[in-house]
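agent> call fold_tool(seq_1)
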Amino acid sequence: MIVSLLVGVPVIAGIAALTTVGLRRAPRRGLHRLLYVNGLLLLAALCLTAAILAGWADPAHAAAAGSSSKNPGAALIGAGIAVAGSTIGAGFAVAYTGSAALAAISEKPEAFGRSMVFVGLAEGIAIYGLVVAIILIGKA
Protein backbone atom coordinates (compact mmCIF):
# COMPACT_ATOMS: atom_id res chain seq x y z
CA MET A 1 0.00 0.00 0.00
CA ILE A 2 2.73 2.47 0.98
CA VAL A 3 4.84 1.50 -2.02
CA SER A 4 1.96 2.12 -4.40
CA LEU A 5 1.39 5.52 -2.80
CA LEU A 6 5.08 6.37 -3.11
CA VAL A 7 4.92 5.54 -6.80
CA GLY A 8 1.46 6.90 -7.52
CA VAL A 9 1.66 10.33 -5.91
CA PRO A 10 4.64 11.60 -7.96
CA VAL A 11 3.09 10.22 -11.15
CA ILE A 12 -0.20 12.01 -10.46
CA ALA A 13 1.64 15.22 -9.51
CA GLY A 14 3.69 15.06 -12.72
CA ILE A 15 0.61 14.52 -14.85
CA ALA A 16 -1.14 17.42 -13.11
CA ALA A 17 1.85 19.71 -13.73
CA LEU A 18 2.06 18.71 -17.40
CA THR A 19 -1.68 19.26 -17.75
CA THR A 20 -1.58 22.77 -16.35
CA VAL A 21 1.40 23.70 -18.51
CA GLY A 22 -0.25 22.24 -21.62
CA LEU A 23 -3.55 23.99 -20.98
CA ARG A 24 -1.90 27.37 -20.35
CA ARG A 25 0.17 27.34 -23.54
CA ALA A 26 -2.50 26.21 -25.99
CA PRO A 27 -5.93 25.73 -24.40
CA ARG A 28 -7.60 24.05 -27.38
CA ARG A 29 -4.73 21.70 -28.27
CA GLY A 30 -4.05 21.16 -24.59
CA LEU A 31 -7.59 19.96 -24.06
CA HIS A 32 -7.30 17.48 -26.92
CA ARG A 33 -4.01 16.21 -25.54
CA LEU A 34 -5.57 15.95 -22.10
CA LEU A 35 -8.36 13.79 -23.48
CA TYR A 36 -5.85 11.51 -25.22
CA VAL A 37 -3.76 11.19 -22.06
CA ASN A 38 -6.86 10.43 -19.98
CA GLY A 39 -7.87 7.76 -22.48
CA LEU A 40 -4.44 6.17 -22.32
CA LEU A 41 -4.45 6.26 -18.52
CA LEU A 42 -7.90 4.66 -18.48
CA LEU A 43 -6.71 1.92 -20.82
CA ALA A 44 -3.61 1.32 -18.67
CA ALA A 45 -5.73 1.15 -15.52
CA LEU A 46 -8.11 -1.35 -17.12
CA CYS A 47 -5.18 -3.51 -18.27
CA LEU A 48 -3.66 -3.40 -14.78
CA THR A 49 -6.99 -4.33 -13.21
CA ALA A 50 -7.39 -7.24 -15.62
CA ALA A 51 -3.84 -8.39 -14.85
CA ILE A 52 -4.49 -8.28 -11.11
CA LEU A 53 -7.77 -10.15 -11.44
CA ALA A 54 -6.21 -12.77 -13.70
CA GLY A 55 -3.33 -13.23 -11.27
CA TRP A 56 -0.60 -12.12 -13.68
CA ALA A 57 0.51 -9.08 -11.73
CA ASP A 58 1.30 -10.92 -8.48
CA PRO A 59 2.46 -14.50 -9.12
CA ALA A 60 3.25 -15.12 -5.43
CA HIS A 61 -0.33 -14.34 -4.46
CA ALA A 62 -1.67 -16.55 -7.23
CA ALA A 63 0.52 -19.48 -6.10
CA ALA A 64 -0.54 -19.03 -2.47
CA ALA A 65 -4.21 -18.99 -3.45
CA GLY A 66 -3.93 -22.42 -5.05
CA SER A 67 -7.09 -23.68 -6.66
CA SER A 68 -9.57 -21.56 -4.71
CA SER A 69 -11.78 -19.58 -7.05
CA LYS A 70 -12.97 -17.12 -4.41
CA ASN A 71 -11.27 -13.78 -4.94
CA PRO A 72 -12.36 -11.05 -2.50
CA GLY A 73 -10.51 -8.45 -4.55
CA ALA A 74 -12.74 -9.14 -7.53
CA ALA A 75 -15.85 -8.66 -5.40
CA LEU A 76 -14.55 -5.31 -4.15
CA ILE A 77 -13.71 -4.15 -7.68
CA GLY A 78 -17.16 -5.27 -8.82
CA ALA A 79 -18.75 -3.35 -5.94
CA GLY A 80 -16.81 -0.25 -6.92
CA ILE A 81 -17.87 -0.59 -10.54
CA ALA A 82 -21.51 -1.05 -9.48
CA VAL A 83 -21.47 2.08 -7.32
CA ALA A 84 -19.59 4.15 -9.89
CA GLY A 85 -21.82 3.12 -12.78
CA SER A 86 -25.04 3.66 -10.87
CA THR A 87 -24.03 7.08 -9.57
CA ILE A 88 -22.94 8.23 -13.03
CA GLY A 89 -26.24 6.98 -14.45
CA ALA A 90 -28.18 8.63 -11.64
CA GLY A 91 -26.35 11.89 -12.28
CA PHE A 92 -27.38 11.89 -15.92
CA ALA A 93 -30.94 10.91 -15.02
CA VAL A 94 -31.29 13.62 -12.39
CA ALA A 95 -29.81 16.20 -14.75
CA TYR A 96 -32.37 15.50 -17.44
CA THR A 97 -35.39 14.93 -15.21
CA GLY A 98 -34.49 17.85 -12.96
CA SER A 99 -34.24 20.29 -15.85
CA ALA A 100 -37.51 19.03 -17.30
CA ALA A 101 -39.14 19.27 -13.87
CA LEU A 102 -37.98 22.87 -13.45
CA ALA A 103 -39.38 23.73 -16.87
CA ALA A 104 -42.71 22.13 -16.00
CA ILE A 105 -42.85 23.84 -12.60
CA SER A 106 -42.15 27.23 -14.15
CA GLU A 107 -45.16 26.79 -16.44
CA LYS A 108 -47.48 25.05 -13.97
CA PRO A 109 -46.50 25.44 -10.29
CA GLU A 110 -49.07 22.83 -9.23
CA ALA A 111 -47.04 20.14 -11.07
CA PHE A 112 -44.33 20.30 -8.39
CA GLY A 113 -45.30 17.08 -6.59
CA ARG A 114 -45.54 14.93 -9.69
CA SER A 115 -42.29 16.21 -11.16
CA MET A 116 -40.36 15.66 -7.93
CA VAL A 117 -41.51 12.02 -7.91
CA PHE A 118 -39.73 11.50 -11.22
CA VAL A 119 -36.58 13.19 -9.94
CA GLY A 120 -36.71 10.95 -6.86
CA LEU A 121 -37.03 7.87 -9.05
CA ALA A 122 -33.96 8.95 -10.96
CA GLU A 123 -32.04 9.31 -7.70
CA GLY A 124 -33.07 5.78 -6.76
CA ILE A 125 -30.73 4.41 -9.42
CA ALA A 126 -27.76 5.23 -7.17
CA ILE A 127 -29.40 3.37 -4.28
CA TYR A 128 -29.73 0.25 -6.46
CA GLY A 129 -26.00 0.36 -7.19
CA LEU A 130 -25.27 0.69 -3.49
CA VAL A 131 -27.47 -2.32 -2.71
CA VAL A 132 -25.65 -4.40 -5.35
CA ALA A 133 -22.31 -3.33 -3.88
CA ILE A 134 -23.39 -4.33 -0.36
CA ILE A 135 -24.50 -7.73 -1.68
CA LEU A 136 -21.17 -8.24 -3.48
CA ILE A 137 -19.14 -7.23 -0.43
CA GLY A 138 -21.23 -9.56 1.74
CA LYS A 139 -20.39 -12.51 -0.50
CA ALA A 140 -16.65 -11.78 -0.44
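agent> call fold_tool(seq_2)
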Amino acid sequence: MSAWTNDELDRIAAAEELELASVRRDRTLRKPVTIWVVRHGDDLYVRSADGRGSTWFRGTQSSGEGHIHAGGVDKDVTFVEAGGEADDEIDDAYRAKYHRYDARYVDPIVSADARAATLKLVPRSSS
Protein backbone atom coordinates (compact mmCIF):
# COMPACT_ATOMS: atom_id res chain seq x y z
CA MET A 1 0.00 0.00 0.00
CA SER A 2 1.12 3.52 -0.64
CA ALA A 3 0.37 6.76 1.14
CA TRP A 4 -1.50 9.84 0.02
CA THR A 5 0.64 12.76 -1.05
CA ASN A 6 -0.03 16.08 0.68
CA ASP A 7 -1.30 17.45 -2.64
CA GLU A 8 -3.77 14.57 -3.05
CA LEU A 9 -5.01 14.95 0.53
CA ASP A 10 -5.47 18.69 0.14
CA ARG A 11 -7.26 18.43 -3.21
CA ILE A 12 -9.60 15.62 -2.20
CA ALA A 13 -10.36 17.19 1.19
CA ALA A 14 -11.19 20.51 -0.50
CA ALA A 15 -13.57 18.85 -2.96
CA GLU A 16 -17.25 19.16 -2.11
CA GLU A 17 -17.96 15.59 -3.21
CA LEU A 18 -16.19 12.43 -4.23
CA GLU A 19 -17.10 9.88 -6.89
CA LEU A 20 -16.60 6.31 -5.76
CA ALA A 21 -16.82 3.16 -7.85
CA SER A 22 -16.21 -0.20 -6.23
CA VAL A 23 -14.69 -3.16 -8.06
CA ARG A 24 -16.92 -6.10 -8.89
CA ARG A 25 -15.73 -9.68 -8.50
CA ASP A 26 -15.00 -9.76 -12.24
CA ARG A 27 -12.68 -6.73 -11.70
CA THR A 28 -14.89 -4.24 -13.58
CA LEU A 29 -15.99 -1.03 -11.89
CA ARG A 30 -19.54 -0.47 -10.71
CA LYS A 31 -21.34 2.74 -11.64
CA PRO A 32 -19.87 5.57 -9.53
CA VAL A 33 -21.81 7.14 -6.69
CA THR A 34 -21.34 10.71 -5.50
CA ILE A 35 -20.77 11.03 -1.76
CA TRP A 36 -19.23 13.31 0.84
CA VAL A 37 -15.61 12.83 1.91
CA VAL A 38 -13.63 14.18 4.86
CA ARG A 39 -10.02 14.29 5.93
CA HIS A 40 -8.82 13.41 9.41
CA GLY A 41 -5.07 13.79 9.78
CA ASP A 42 -3.43 12.03 6.85
CA ASP A 43 -6.46 9.85 6.14
CA LEU A 44 -9.61 10.21 4.06
CA TYR A 45 -12.98 8.82 5.11
CA VAL A 46 -16.38 8.22 3.54
CA ARG A 47 -19.60 7.09 5.16
CA SER A 48 -22.92 5.75 4.06
CA ALA A 49 -25.66 7.93 5.51
CA ASP A 50 -27.99 4.96 4.98
CA GLY A 51 -25.77 2.59 6.94
CA ARG A 52 -24.27 -0.74 5.98
CA GLY A 53 -27.30 -1.78 3.93
CA SER A 54 -26.88 0.83 1.23
CA THR A 55 -26.14 -0.51 -2.23
CA TRP A 56 -22.87 1.35 -2.71
CA PHE A 57 -21.56 0.33 0.73
CA ARG A 58 -22.38 -3.34 0.12
CA GLY A 59 -20.53 -3.04 -3.20
CA THR A 60 -17.34 -2.01 -1.39
CA GLN A 61 -17.49 -5.17 0.67
CA SER A 62 -17.22 -7.70 -2.17
CA SER A 63 -13.67 -6.95 -3.31
CA GLY A 64 -12.60 -4.24 -0.86
CA GLU A 65 -11.24 -2.21 -3.76
CA GLY A 66 -12.37 0.60 -5.98
CA HIS A 67 -11.59 3.86 -7.70
CA ILE A 68 -12.23 7.41 -6.55
CA HIS A 69 -12.28 10.79 -8.25
CA ALA A 70 -12.32 14.12 -6.40
CA GLY A 71 -10.55 17.44 -6.69
CA GLY A 72 -8.95 16.38 -9.95
CA VAL A 73 -7.43 13.29 -8.33
CA ASP A 74 -8.14 9.84 -9.79
CA LYS A 75 -6.94 7.01 -7.58
CA ASP A 76 -7.35 3.29 -7.09
CA VAL A 77 -8.11 2.59 -3.42
CA THR A 78 -8.64 -0.11 -0.87
CA PHE A 79 -11.62 0.28 1.45
CA VAL A 80 -10.72 -0.33 5.10
CA GLU A 81 -13.45 -0.43 7.72
CA ALA A 82 -12.67 2.32 10.21
CA GLY A 83 -13.86 0.32 13.21
CA GLY A 84 -14.77 3.32 15.36
CA GLU A 85 -11.19 4.40 16.05
CA ALA A 86 -11.88 8.05 15.23
CA ASP A 87 -15.68 8.34 15.09
CA ASP A 88 -15.93 11.54 17.13
CA GLU A 89 -13.21 13.25 15.10
CA ILE A 90 -14.76 12.10 11.81
CA ASP A 91 -18.15 13.40 13.00
CA ASP A 92 -16.50 16.74 13.75
CA ALA A 93 -14.86 16.79 10.31
CA TYR A 94 -18.23 16.21 8.61
CA ARG A 95 -19.91 18.91 10.70
CA ALA A 96 -17.12 21.41 10.00
CA LYS A 97 -16.91 20.75 6.26
CA TYR A 98 -20.63 20.56 5.56
CA HIS A 99 -21.92 23.00 8.20
CA ARG A 100 -23.67 25.17 5.61
CA TYR A 101 -26.10 22.35 4.86
CA ASP A 102 -29.32 21.88 6.78
CA ALA A 103 -29.22 19.41 9.68
CA ARG A 104 -31.49 17.02 7.76
CA TYR A 105 -28.49 16.35 5.48
CA VAL A 106 -25.70 16.43 8.05
CA ASP A 107 -27.36 14.54 10.92
CA PRO A 108 -27.66 11.24 9.00
CA ILE A 109 -23.92 11.24 8.19
CA VAL A 110 -23.04 11.49 11.89
CA SER A 111 -25.63 8.95 13.07
CA ALA A 112 -24.87 5.57 14.64
CA ASP A 113 -25.81 3.82 11.38
CA ALA A 114 -23.39 5.98 9.38
CA ARG A 115 -20.64 5.51 11.97
CA ALA A 116 -21.02 1.75 11.47
CA ALA A 117 -20.52 2.28 7.72
CA THR A 118 -17.32 4.33 7.84
CA LEU A 119 -14.56 3.47 5.39
CA LYS A 120 -11.00 4.74 5.27
CA LEU A 121 -9.75 5.20 1.72
CA VAL A 122 -6.25 3.78 1.33
CA PRO A 123 -4.46 4.50 -1.94
CA ARG A 124 -3.18 1.54 -3.91
CA SER A 125 0.10 1.87 -5.75
CA SER A 126 -0.29 1.72 -9.51
CA SER A 127 2.41 -0.81 -10.28
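agent> summarizing second result for user.
The CA atoms of residues 61 and 79 lie 8 Å apart. Helices lie at 6-14, 55-63, 87-97, 103-106, 112-115.
agent> awaiting next instruction.
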